[in-house]
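Limitations

Structures in this collection are predictions, not experimental determinations, and the ligand pose is part of the prediction. Treat each record accordingly. The example that follows, with adenosine-5'-triphosphate as the small molecule, is included so readers can see exactly what is and is not provided: the inputs are given verbatim, and the output is the predicted complex.
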Amino acid sequence: MSVQVRDISVRFGRRQVLDALTLPEMHAGEVTVLAGPNAAGKSTLLRAIAQLLPHQGQVALDGQDLRQMPATERARLVGFMPQSLPSGSSLIALETVIAALRAGKTLPAHQADAAAMAVMEKLGIASLALEPLDALSGGQRQMVALAQAIVRDPSLLLLDEPTSALDLARQVRLLSELRRLAAEGRVVAAVLHDLALAAQWADRIVLIHAGRVHAHGRPQDVLTPALLAEIYGVEARIERCSRGRLMVLIDGERQLAR
Ligand SMILES: Nc1ncnc2c1ncn2[C@@H]1O[C@H](COP(=O)(O)OP(=O)(O)OP(=O)(O)O)[C@@H](O)[C@H]1O
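Predicted complex:
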């Protein structure tokens, strides 16, 4: 499977947030990380790809335009994990995962319960199943959001800062899960701010700046001091640790020439 994202433009009022943005084609088996400064347009792009906000341009799965698909078919094919789950829910965590499952599939109640529980077990959060969603910690809610995003077994998985509230062990658990989901034949795209995590887990990094793709490629090609200075305005060093992994070291903000 491949995903084509072409010429995406989004405007909020008079503000052009995305300007004919085209991503490199994404393929099954690959994890693509979208990175870039605050307000660059990363969340807006993910939401446009998931067809959650009005936009111009095209998103296609194997050439099939997502916009033209019936909503249930799209819900089955695309999983979206938001930056945070809305609060004010009166449901327990398991019910929210069941509701996410039923948005894309009609299933008898006992099968839906079992499928939702199986995903929570796989993610190590079975003990949270009967807790009210609103009573969970930020990291626990983020793991439940992941369960909601993957429970329909989507072909395209979109995640908005999925590790932002997670402790170190759960970051590794989530990112290993993303790699496994990709290896099983899915397309995975995640917004991440942590470039060290991106370097370790991504096949490809797309740097987004001011609503456009500034650079894209393998982590070793994109994580360069020059590009990080251009995009983030920082003095960065990229070094390899003893295991050969890329380390991104930020020495400070870049001093502008007078
Ligand atoms: N619903 C909205 N109405 C008006 N403006 C919006 C809306 N959503 C986003 N924006 C604006 O669009 C721009 C891009 O926002 P977006 O959330 O996509 O950035 P981001 O790259 O994900 O940022 P961050 O790293 O801070 O999460 C920002 O200037 C933001 O204020």
